[in-house]
């Protein structure tokens, strides 16, 4: 009987580890409660819906090594993080790129030539996005920010300064998607 009970417990543990835990749902998009950035596990800090003119555009999830609600604390840490965007509406690459550049100008002071060049590199990685497609930005200390668009690795942009600047477009003083979006990402 003890062997049967031990075997059953091991089977339940194996099954529970194989089935990902779901954490949050917004606009029909469900995000996992944790993910890996390289070998680092990050936890869902917050989930937010980007709306523009009453149209749902994308659902974003911010994953951090430790949950935090203060943007300055998040940006001061040099630890793994992940931002995912699941689109629920088609968006042209030009509009995405315009938003990156506007977010950079609105949230970073001063904007250095190097940072501008990195945002131009980011813009070169963008494509038109359709409903149901996703992009993500995973930052690993020492390795930089890996940009994934529609499931394809578009490359990495080095440096924490870029990682902080791209994240600031969502959680900085003037977040492009708005203050309620920022609060949701921060778990507030």
From TrEMBL:
Keywords noted in UniProt: Signal
Residues covered by the Chalcone isomerase domain: 25-187
Name of the protein in its database record: Chalcone isomerase domain-containing protein
Top-level taxon in the UniProt lineage: Bacteria
Signal sequence residues: 1-23
UniProt lineage: Bacteria, Pseudomonadati, Thermodesulfobacteriota, Desulfovibrionia, Desulfovibrionales
Pfam family membership, one: Chalcone_3
Source organism of the structure: Pseudodesulfovibrio portus
Keyword presence, Magnesium: no
Family matches, as Gene3D superfamilies: 3.50.70.10
